[in-house]
Each structure stands twice: as structure tokens, then as C-alpha cells.
Amino acid sequence: MSTNLYNMASYDDDNQSKLMRKAKENPFVPAGLAGFFAIVGYQLMKMKHRGNTKMSVHLIHMRVAAQGFVVGAMTCGVLYSMYKEYIWDPAHKPKEEK
């Protein structure tokens, strides 16, 4: 039974280190998620004071804002990785095929 507990602890450590490694490789993914949840939370709190706006219109605006933030974060992440790969460290370019 103690070996099973050890395996579970190492499994959790592996997943946690994998998550941290992925976040360091691609820092815009956690930023996109944080922005998504911030926008959704703000819009849900703002829903109380929406006035005459229909619920469906308010939800559509919330969805568009959250998706726009996530797409923007993904675009920034792709541009950052391209910059890092081709401009900042061009010595590690892949070899051209003949």
C-alpha cells in the first residue's frame, strides 16, 4: 500500500511539473485563461445592472469579449514563439531540406 501512495505522489509531482513547464514554454495560455475568467466574471457581475438589454444579447456580448481575449492571447503567443525562434535565437534554425 505504501508503494501505491508513493506512485500517486510522484504522479501528482509529474503533472504539476509538466503544467509548470508548459506554462513557462507558452506563457500566454495561462494569461488567456485568466483573462477569459476575468471577463466572464465581470460580465456576470454586470448582469444585474443591464437595464433593458435582453439576457441573450448580454450573454452574446460576454461570449464575444471572452473569445476575443482568448484569440488575442493565442495570437500573441504565436507571435512570441515565432520571434523567439526566428529573430531572438536564429542559430537554432531547422536545417533546410534539399
TrEMBL record:
Q: Where is the HIG1 domain?
A: 1-92
TM stretches of this protein? 27-44, 64-83
State whether keyword Membrane applies.
Answer: yes
Q: Which PROSITE patterns match?
A: HIG1
Q: Which GO terms describe its biological process?
A: mitochondrial respirasome assembly
Q: Which InterPro entries match?
A: Hypoxia_induced_domain, RCF1
Its keywords, alphabetically, are: Membrane, Mitochondrion, Transmembrane, Transmembrane helix
Q: Where in the cell is it found?
A: Mitochondrion membrane
Q: Name one GO cellular component term.
A: mitochondrial membrane
Q: What is this protein called?
A: HIG1 hypoxia inducible domain family member 1A
**Organism listed in the record:** Oryzias melastigma
